[in-house]
Amino acid sequence: LQVFDEDGKNVTPHPLFQSDPNTAVPRQGKLYFRVFYLTHGSSSTWISNKSTTKSVLDGTAEPDSGQDPTLSLPAVQVGQEEMEEELTEADLDQRVDIYLSETDTLWMFDMPSVMVSVEAEDAARVLERNKIYVDICKTKAGSERFEERMVQTLAGAAKNKEVQCETIIVEDKGMMVTSWDLDNSFNASEIEPMSRAEGFGATTGGSSKSPTTKGQEQTVSISSDRGITTSSLMIPESAVPVRSQEEEKCHSEAILTSENLKQDLVIMERILMENIFQPKLAAYRQIPVLIEPDITSDRSDKVTATEEDEEEEHDKEKKDEGKEEKGFIDPSMKINKTPEEDAAPRLEQLWCYTCDLTSGHSVSSMAWNKVNPDLLAIGYREFDSKDQKKGLACCWSLKNPMWPERIFRCDHGVTAVDFSLASPNLLAVGTSRGSVAVYDVQSRNDAVFLDSSASLNKHTGAVWQLRWVEQDRGATGGDKKERLMCISADGRVTEWLIHQRLDCFDLIKLRRTERDKKKLPGEKERKSEAPISQHAAGMCFDFHPEDTDIYLAGTDEGHIYQCSCSGKEQILETYRGHKGPVYRVAWNPSSTDMFLSCSADWSTILWHRDSQTPLLTFSSVTAFVHDIMWSPKSAFIFAAVKESRVEIWDLSVSIFNPVISHTANPEANLTSILFAKNTNCLLLGDSLGGVGVWELFNLDAPGSNTV
């Protein structure tokens, strides 16, 4: 199809599609030319129509040919022949008028615009609707305000559910009231609905509702002209507004983190522990053990139960007789002991202070609270492995033997602990790196109350022992003062001043002494080698029970020094008897001129204050003696721990053998010992983090006149 203007110029538009020249050109048939003259207004245009018939093999018709493409090939050929016969030159020269008109628009995709021009006619209406929508969103977000509307809900399908429960017990109760009680109650019933109606904002003839939680009742107050009446309505769960998940989560977290809940859980835990450990706690406090009585509903049940018990006991007696004849003893049955065996001194374990937190640590020291005898402080350290674990200082209570009441975590192993007497809530802790810290056990926060990190004169070695010492025993009330004393591996005995921070000054520096070696006949004199350090490492100390200015200090050389706090660098006596480091020294609380010492040379020595020669040496087994302690009830009884064994010595019975020698834990070594206050019990700490509480039987303490 070609288009020409009035001047005969070809103005046909170029096609947008460019055919590929490499494609095969179909075979063409005959060419036909038709020319049309168009008259449109004052201008006229003539059109030359050139139609091309395709090959017979193609079998399709051109759209411009005016033929129906659905016609078969023979029909197309017949139509072409008729056109060849009918069209003449006169027909071709004839002028034909063609009128062009617009066809109907076909909409393939219609997407209205979401933007409206500000100058549009409905711009004001659109802005008003947008403002209303924003206001609705603001009021709905996080809001629980409800409007009073009548709503008809669809009742769900009924579901039958059967539950078996105990019979509900109904009781009738009555009370005597007087006329003025009735009058006061009537007046109160009138005042309460009025205040409630004001709080809920009730209106005349209406009701007000407030959001409630699931399963609660709502009270609706109704006011009228005649008076005020109050009715209680039970709203079903479906009608109660449900809280959002975020609000329920926040509400549950607030409950779980509340201090009241924690305190209630602690009380419940203590009640459970007392129920579980009731017989053992009663034995510890030396009170009778409560036995729960068997409560039966009927007397006949009691008779039947007693008959069954008698039959069971009779059967057990027969079985026991048969086993005794065969020489078999049931280990679960209690063996009857002879009176001599039952009267012999022995140890029985009640419980053990241990938990997952303390396992893997070694118990280094123990101390009772000087005001509360049920509170025990235990220090934990770890020296067996190269990678030293962090230390722990835990406060245990008799009310919960399975988990400590307070846990204080230290950067290094704890080597010494002690409670203050003037301020029982202060706990002093010494570590293996020479630091000293004071904790407040009343506070639930485990932060350090005071520490020696800022002190310029702090220890450079492990603090093996510390003690709160009364400065003036004769003073009372506010005049009584305490001093915090420490002995360290750097050879210093220090006194710490407690102000805004901890600071100390030296009482004495322990120096090494040269040992006098015996010269053999014919041996040449050797030059003495200079020691690596001039200071002897302090291992332990103990202050005199009556005169706190006098104290004993044990060193790693095996020497024991009697020192005085009054004069600096003043050593009163030197006791030489041990061949290894002195692990513990202890004054006798009853006979204050005697003291004990234990060492790594497997021996325990009894000393007199005025004699530099040992009075008695106790050595039962070849094992290190880690700790010793005098009994608070007798001047003759003391306890010592030797690796996995504990020995109880009674000097009034024997000075050669202990009255009790017991292996507490074969898998662990015992590290520390402590007598309980006001009871016949002994506490043993081991290297696995456990502190066992053992009861002493048949260990009679001699009277004071025997001493």
From TrEMBL:
Q: Output the Gene Ontology terms for molecular function.
A: dynein heavy chain binding; dynein light chain binding
List keywords of the entry alphabetically.
Cell projection, Cilium, Cytoplasm, Cytoskeleton, Flagellum, Repeat, WD repeat
- Annotated WD repeats reside at 575-617, 618-652
Q: Which PROSITE patterns match?
A: WD_REPEATS_2
Identification of the protein by name: Dynein axonemal intermediate chain 4
Q: Where is this region: Disordered?
A: 1-21, 197-224, 298-337
Q: Where in the cell is it found?
A: Cytoplasm, Cytoskeleton, Flagellum axoneme; Dynein axonemal particle
Stored PANTHER family: DYNEIN AXONEMAL INTERMEDIATE CHAIN 4, DYNEIN INTERMEDIATE CHAIN
Q: Which organism is it from?
A: Oxyruncus cristatus (sharpbill)
Q: Which InterPro entries match?
A: Dynein_IC, WD40/YVTN_repeat-like_dom_sf, WD40_repeat_dom_sf, WD40_rpt
- The reply to whether Cytoplasm figures as a keyword in the UniProt entry is yes
Give any Pfam family that matches.
WD40
This entry carries the following GO cellular component terms, namely: axonemal dynein complex; dynein axonemal particle
Per the record, the major location class is cytoplasm
The UniProt regions of compositional bias labelled Low complexity, in chain numbering, are 205-215
Output compositional bias ranges, type Basic and acidic residues. 315-328
The family database entries (SUPFAM superfamilies) matched by this protein are listed as: WD40 repeat-like
The UniProt entry's GO biological process terms, in alphabetical order, are: cilium movement
